[in-house]
Design goal:
Blueprint (H helix, E strand, L loop, with lengths): L6 H5 L7 E9 L9 H14 L2 E10 L10 H11 L7 E4 L2 H4 L5 H13 L3 E4 L12 H32 L12 E6 L5 E5 L11 E6 L4 H13 L5 H10 L12 H8 L8 E3 L2 E2 L7 E2 L6 E3 L9 H17 L2 H15 L4 H6 L5 H8 L2 H7 L2 H18 L3 E3 L4 E3 L3 E8 L2 E3 L2 E6 L9 E7 L7 E8 L8 E4 L2 H7 L5 H7 L1
Parallel strand pairs: 1-2, 1-3, 3-4, 14-17
Antiparallel strand pairs: 5-6, 5-7, 8-11, 9-10, 12-13, 13-14, 15-16, 16-19, 17-18
Helix pairs in contact: 7-10, 8-9, 13-14
């Protein structure tokens, strides 16, 4: 039996008469010249001629990555319109496994070969040759070549990444289009400026380097204006965007300005002359993801920026104050201060205190009402413990879990203590049914006041109430008698 490493023996496997085939070639932008499409064609055609194989059609993907099948129109056309639909050929010829693809999941490479086999065609890598039917090691060798093809891409990607990190640490531009308002500047071997690079233009000598410089166009002045309007004039991002759009000034994307596009300018450290690399990662066609800041590569004072560092830091301080304002603890502290000063809540009072809007409280806490309830968490927890103790005396067995109770092993109960929420000259209790499937009954515990523990009554919300919306029960004895219960005796009958 021939050994898999004896390539000549593998190539000598005979073909039947009148053999027809199609051929596939691929050359990526990173491939060396010896992998060019014409060179692949010459080798595959010569192999086909020597083995009596007629090539009836050829498919070539120029400058296409082999990491996936996406973005390879010739490969897709071959698989969909020839392999699956035509029966006038028996083989698909490809120079080697890497030209078929450098799939990072090598099972995907095998899957496409299996699809060809299912359609009655066999993939032949001409550098390996047609396998003998009695050679069990051929699949092992092909699988090993798939691994080598995938590993080559991983190693190359790692080398490129390390090179870009080194270039960035030295204060040079690692590649890609420059930010809005900045141009790429070519430096000679002695690091002296030569000339700005046009879009798409590359350096021609390996020892040359590229840095950034403020653009000679109006874009640099627009960047400086955005920082001045934001920091010194006190304009918001939305106000700045509207002003730029009124003047017909295009954004970095060539369209109108928006709040987010202005904010991206204000948070970009490159405008103070800092090179920043590795903020995001997208290796080997994987989804782009944000890297933690400790993994960023920063080189300050790498080039002359558009604005001063002091102005940039003031802009970041404004953003930090905003973030602090929307922290949960700060939002609740501000709400408590307004309540303590006025004994009730009103949107006008919240605006005067420069608090976030009621909608912001709704996004963070579910609603402004439930944000208000969190101000009295210690009292509500005390009420929860008090009710649980009462249930222990009323019922035979009460099992306490993290945030619900099981009564007599029959009924699951969610306790919801609520303090009165002031509303003009009245007050109300905000309630919402616990929508978890495990909860049979939500028990609203109606507290008399926020200052001390005094329970006025209870309102039961069974699971068959099909709503997740909150509702308000205005504080009155009539409502308790009409909608609720004065004590917990009703739960005894309910459990039984």
């Amino acid at each position: 039996m021939a050994n898999w490493w004896e390539i000549e023996d593998l190539n000598s496997a005979p073909f039947p008469a009148a053999v027809r085939a199609i051929a596939y070639y691929r050359h990526s932008a990173q491939d060396r010249q010896e992998n060019s499409i014409p060179i692949q064609q010459d080798q595959v055609r010569e192999w086909a001629k020597n083995h009596g194989v007629e090539i009836i059609e050829e498919f070539a993907d120029h400058g296409r990555s082999g990491l996936t099948s996406e973005g390879r129109p010739a490969f897709t056309d071959m698989m969909e319109n020839w392999v699956k639909k035509r029966n006038d050929f028996q083989y698909i010829l490809c120079l080697d496994v890497s030209r078929w693809g450098r799939f990072q999941d090598i099972d995907l490479s095998a899957q496409f070969s299996a699809e060809c086999k299912k359609a009655g065609k066999q993939v032949i890598y001409t550098t390996i040759g047609k396998p003998r039917e009695d050679d069990p090691l051929y699949p092992v060798y092909v699988q090993f070549e798939r691994f080598r093809a995938a590993q080559y891409s991983k190693e190359l990607s790692d080398k490129v990444w390390r090179g870009c990190v080194k270039i960035s640490e030295q204060g040079y531009w690692a590649g890609g289009p420059p930010p809005y308002g900045l141009d790429r500047l070519l430096l000679d071997e002695s690091k002296h400026p030569l000339h700005p690079l046009a879009p798409g233009q590359r350096k021609s000598i390996q020892n040359q380097r590229v840095t950034l410089t403020p653009s000679a166009s109006d874009e640099a002045r627009v960047v400086a204006r955005i920082f001045d309007d934001f920091v010194n004039q006190g304009h918001s991002e939305r106000q700045i965007a509207k002003a730029l759009n009124r003047e017909g000034i295009l954004s970095p994307g060539g369209m109108g300005w928006s709040k987010s596009s202005v904010k991206s300018i204000l948070q970009n450290e490159k405008y103070v002359g800092t090179i920043v690399y590795n903020r995001t990662t997208q290796k080997l066609k994987t989804p782009r993801r944000e890297n933690p800041e400790e993994k960023w590569v920063k080189t300050p004072d790498a080039f002359d920026g558009i604005i001063e560092s002091e102005l940039f830091l003031k802009a970041q301080e404004i953003f930090q104050r905003r973030r602090d304002k929307y922290e949960s603890e700060n939002m609740l502290a501000g709400l408590q201060k307004v309540f303590e000063n006025n004994d009730f809540l009103r949107p006008s009072l919240m605006r005067a205190a420069e608090l976030p809007s009621a909608a912001c409280y709704g996004q963070k806490f579910g609603s402004l009402d439930f944000a208000f309830q969190q101000l009295f968490t210690p009292l509500r927890n005390e009420a929860r413990r008090d009710v649980e103790a009462k249930l222990q005396t009323v019922l035979g067995e009460v099992l306490s879990y993290a945030d619900f109770l099981v009564l007599d092993r029959k009924l699951t109960l969610s306790l919801q203590p609520v303090v009165p929420t002031p509303h003009g000259y009245a007050a109300y209790w905000p309630l919402r049914r616990d929508s978890r499937a495990v909860i049979d009954l939500t028990l609203g515990v109606l507290l008399a006041e926020p200052a001390q523990l005094r329970i006025l009554g209870y309102i039961a919300l069974p699971k068959w109430i099909q709503t997740d919306r909150s509702f308000r029960v205005f504080c009155s004895s009539q409502n308790i008698e009409l909608l609720g219960h004065r004590n917990l005796d009703f739960l005894t009958n309910l459990v039984q």
